[in-house]
Amino acid sequence: MSNIVAEIHQEVQEMFQELTDTENVSIATVEKQVSAAAGSWGQRLSEAILSETASSTDGSPVSVPCPSCQGHSHRHRCRGRNFTTACGVLRVLRWEYKCKCGSIHVPWEMRQGLKGQYTQHVSATMMRLAAQLNYRAAAVELKHHGIEVSHTTLHQKVREWSEGEAVSDYVDEQSLDAGARWYVSCDGCHINSSQGWKEVKVGCVSKDYPHTNATSVIKMRPSSPRYVASESQAMDFGQQVAALAAQTGIYQDENTIDTEEVVVIGDGAAWIWNLADEHFPSATEIVDYMHAKGHLYDVAKHAFGEDDRETVETWVRATETPLYNAETSQVVARIRDLGKQNPTLSDVVEREVGYFEKHAHRMRYRDLSEKGYQIGSGVIESACKHVVAERCKQAGMRWSKPGIDAILFWRCLLKNEAWDTYWDTQDTQTA
Asked: 305 Cβ partners below 8 Å, 6+ apart?
């Protein structure tokens, strides 16, 4: 150890002398040479410190409990292993212990919070970049930071380290102000896979500002949304959304269940309303207003043709008023009138009539707006883009279910401001 310190000290003195003797030395020259040398000094010093402490017999008892059989394992041999750290790849000498049951383990490693050969700092950096960039770009960026990891290894670790994890375990609990409401919104978007396009379901729990009077601004708290996303069947995803909601704070206090207002917003997908019925049975349900309005456009375009924009807009504007006023019977009547004028629209008419009649109780837009409810699902529409699409719908990407679920776990940690909570938990588990 003393030799390493002396060597580094000598090199520091020599560099100082060389640079100060250089006439008009530039800041760029100093920056380049000192940075390069500092990396080498840090690597060598770290390696020496860790090897001396990990291989010391003073800090390594003769025997320790075996984690496999709970018997006694004995100090076996001092052996080196490479670890990838922020200071570079370090070769550390540490004691291995061997048990009669045949298992070999390294107590020193178990105390370090390592993920395989990677320190926690490096592991977190790997996952953070992989969650934001495609794997090849993330590997390039890691190399720029002095961490050599191939894109295939990165891909493997993203899956391995997220296995068995749930986003809801790491979100923070929030409180609901008097006069405010919880919102649960869901939607689906599609990603490409080797079996074709697959639906990724996205859920969001958020809350608004208190609505105290008729002039209160209807606005979502920008720091409140918490997300979950996966390529799951509807029943499984419902459990994920329910877990997220519970951990965030919905229905946590039994005394406020009857007074705590929850609103579910979605489009016309049946799985969303089945989810609401199962997990939020007393919630106020709202079909996103723009989605409902989009159905009016679909009918009008079939009836008048997409090129006749003026007629389409005129019909939609006239039909939008009864839609907003919850006069569903008038909306249905206007759609049926189009069918009478053009019998070839019968299938379209019946489909859209069925849609509006089925969701009529979820379309009380004027009344809900006047009471301060959000009637649009902009939060979840945005989530489909910034949680899923930005990372997972880039050119040439093909996802497997384990692959997409893994990357979405890390992205949701970031979006939920739960990144530090997750890594702090990893520290606790190895303490």
From this structure: none
- What's the token pair of residue 194? 């080797």
- Better pLDDT: 113 or 98: 98
Q: Buried (b) or exposed (e) across 270-301, using 16+ Cβ within 10 A?
A: ebbbebbeebbeebbbbbbbebbeebbbebbb
Q: Is the dihedral of CA 200, 201, 205, 209 positive or negative?
A: positive
Residues recorded for the chain:
431
| Other C-beta atoms lying within 10 Å of the C-beta of residue 32 | 11
Measured between alpha carbons, how far is 367 from 370 in angstroms, rounded to an integer? 5
Cβ-Cβ contacts under 8 Å for 146 (sequence gap 6 or more)? 39, 86, 88
Residues 134-157 as b or e (16 or more Cβ within 10 Å = b):
bbeebbeebeeebbebebebbbeb
Contact status, residue 392 vs residue 191, Cβ threshold 8 Å: yes
pLDDT at 220 over 90: no
Q: Which residues contact 132 (CB under 8 A, 6 or more apart)?
A: 138, 391, 411, 414
Q: CA 391, CA 410: separation in Å to the nearest integer?
A: 11
Task: Name the helix (H) or strand (E) containing 263.
Answer: strand 262-266
Nearest CA to 8 among 54, 49, 50?
Answer: 49
Domain boundaries, the chain: 1-111, 113-163, 167-288+376-430, 291-361
pLDDT tens column, 318-357 = 999 999 999 999 999 999 999 999 989 999 999 999 999 9
Q: How far is residue 241's CA from residue 288's CA, in Å, rounded to a whole number?
A: 19
Q: Which among 333, 227, 353, 205 has a CA at the least distance from the CA of 279?
A: 205
Q: Which residues contact 103 (CB under 8 A, 6 or more apart)?
A: 66, 67, 68, 69, 73
* Lookup: tokens for 47: 């390696």
Show the tokens assigned to 151.
């894109």
Q: What pTM value is reported for the model?
A: 0.89
Q: How far apart are CA 225 and CA 182, in angstroms?
A: 10
Asked whether the beta carbons of 158 and 139 are under 8 A apart, the reply is: no
400 Cβ contact partners less than 8 Å away, ≥ 6 residues apart: 193, 194
Alpha helices for 172-308 (secondary structure H): 234-248, 270-279, 289-304
The single residue listed with the structure tokens 């708290």 is 221
